[in-house]
Every structure is written in C-alpha cells, then in structure tokens.
Amino acid sequence: MLKLLTVGFGLLLLSGCASYGVIDNAALSDSTSAQPYSHRALSGKKGSGDIILTLAFSGGGTRAAALAYGVLEELRDTTVVIGGQPRRLLDEIDNISSVSGGSFTSAYYGLYGERIFKDFKDEFLTRDIEGKLLHGLFNPLRWFSSKGRTEMAVKLYEEYVFHGATFADMQRTGGPLIVINASDLGYGVRFSFVQEYFDLLCSDLSTFPVARAVAASSAVPVLFNPVVVKAYHDCRPDWLEQSAERAASNPALEPIIRGLETYSDKSGRDYAHLVDGGITDNLGLRAIYEVMELSGGPQEFLKTAGREPPSHNVVISVNASTEPEPAMDKSNRQPSMAETINSMSNVQLHRYNDATIQLMQQSLTKWTQAVSTPERPVTTYFPKLGFIDIEEPERRRFFNDIPTSFSLTEEQVDRLIEAGHELLRNNPDYQRLLADLGGAQTPKLDGGH
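The structure assignment produced for this chain is given below.
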C-alpha cells in the first residue's frame, strides 16, 4: 500500500490535472423500489429468530478480506440446535457491517451467498489486484485523465469481482443486510450504503453499483480519489428529524447529527466525497452503535425491523489490524518520513479501535438490559477476534508482518483463512454461545491445524 501511495502521489504531482468524480447515483423517483435496501430489510430475514447475529469486518486490504472469509467458513461449518432443529450459524447472520478490505468479503457474500466458498479465493483473495492497479497508474494516458484513479479501481472491481451488480441485486438475494461503510471526507462523518443514508441525498440506492460502494469504502485518501455522489433536491427524512430530537439528550450523538444534517443544506452541498471507511470506523462497530442509538435504542430498532427480542444477541468483531515490530528501533538511524507517518497512523488507529471496543461493550450491556425481561432474558456475546489472540510468538509475528495490500501470496491467504477459523473457534465468548445453545462445542484447534 505504501508503494501504491508513493507512486500515486508522484503521478499526481506530474499530472497537475484536475479530475472530476463520475456521478453514478440516481435521484429518487416514483419508480423507486417499494422495498429499499435498508435496515428495515431485517424484517425479511429467514433466520430462526432466536438469535440476532451481527458480524463486523475491519479494514486491512486483502489481509482483512481473507480473515473475514475464514470466519464465514467457520460459521458455515458450525451446526447448533435451535428449537429442536439443527441449524448452521451461517444461516443465522442478520447483518454484516464492513469497512475497506472487509467490504470485499461482505459484499461478495451479500450478492452471491455460498458461491463465495467456491470462487472468492480465486476471484479476489489470490488475485494480484495491486499489480493491476500499479499497471494502470503507470499508463501515461491515465495521467491526464479527468476521471481520476478511483475509476480505474472501480473498473477492476467490476471486471474481476462484482460483475455489474447493483444494490437491487443484493436485495433480491434474501440474505443478511450488508452495510458497507465509507467516510464523508468533507464533514468527517460515517456514510453507509443503505437507503436511509441515500434518503439524505434524495437518491435511489437500488441502481448504485456495488463495486463503486466497495471502492468508496476502501479509497485511501491521496492514493485514490473520493467516490463522489450527488445530492439532489431538498430532502430531510423523518428518521433524521427524530434522531436530532434524541441527540438533545445524548451528547455523543450531537456531532453525528451535525454532520448528517449538512446533507439537507442543498444550497451549500451539491455533492459528497466518500473515502476509506477506516477513517471514521476501522472496525465496522461504530456503524452498529450509531444505527442503534439513532433509531432510539434497541426496542425502537426491533420494532422498526419487525423483530421480537432474541434470546441470544451476538456481535462478532473480526479485527485484521496488525502490530508489526518497528524496524526503526533496531538502529539509531533516524526513521524515514514513511516510517514516521506509518507509526503515527498506527498509534491513532489502535487507540481509536480500543475506544470503539469499549464503547461497543458498554452499549451491548445497556441494550441487553433494555430488552431483557424475566420471562424472556436476553444474553449478549461479543467475540473479539484479532491476531493478538494467537499465542505462539512466531505465528503471531507472521500475521503482524502481512502488509495492508491488495496482493498477498497464496500461503499468506491460506494461513489467514485458517486463522479466521482458529480465532473464532477458540474464542471463549463464542464457546460460551455454543454451550448455551446446547450444541456440541467444536474442539479447540491445535496450533492452527
């Protein structure tokens, strides 16, 4: 990724040419789908209803995508007994919130379901996407293009991964709700590709390409241009009005509402510039928190989704962030500018991740208390998966040294998939869930085998 960033910045200096975002979002119209791709879609989920299972896939390039894929495989391979019937945990997934590299896995699963287990590894995980991006960056014809570097990425993702699919295609699959998250560069708020957020733009999500949403979620600033969406005529959806009222008694919501309200100011905002979701939420967890709080809490959220409180509320955080050993500390040589920037970014990222985990832990406890009753108690599970949980130092170092890149070796991909299995299967909170469901616990893996 650093190599891509360096090349992209150098070409940017050479070109000196302004680029313009391609607008690919349509205005709302009378023909807009009566069943939008939104949080209300949870009401159509085909799970047992006894579990609400949410996954959060972090950023981290192909490393994040492969780790998330391994977790999906483990859920596919885990059968529990619910209501006297055997069910795979994969079939109980209600919602996947994803960022950057994790969005490739979530979007592919949302579109193609279990086909992911047949061809996603070849379609994306072991494909040298980074090499193709570099090849495009060195094409002199692109140096002076007015469309920008992100359009090259969108075309690659269309050709090799998403094949022209739109959110209408995602809606038709009947699978879990996939929430792809980006960041609004102008106002620093999180932006999700669900109809509730497109309502802020007076725009129809159903015709929007999934490849473009994933490109926005993974568009590292400077390296890639923002994905630009147009804000159409005045819209202020009811949910924003209601959320603004709730923010009056919740200071944590106030900056979020201020950012979202800017979409209503069409005299000052004609467009939104969307970049890497990791800037505002690298774990994909704050999207879950904000939706619940902006909805008015778990009771209102469940009512809107047409759901009863579950017996088991499960949020699985798949965190592919790394902590490589700094090479600078092995010498008295002054660190390079790249090393300095990278270290500063890592410090901020990990501190923000820690704060997010703490916020989510506290919120899950509060939400559970709000919907539990003596007659129907709700139990919460929060498996947090990360490379820090790998006990063997050499194996842990191997994963921490895998770069944030879109070009990994087949060995790296295979071991990341294996780690996804291992980290979930050995997680104590996940083991507690399996025990509480009365199913046979999966034996612990030995050394990742």
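Interim note for the steering committee: The chain has a mean pLDDT of 86. Residues 3 and 48 are 47 Å apart (CA to CA).
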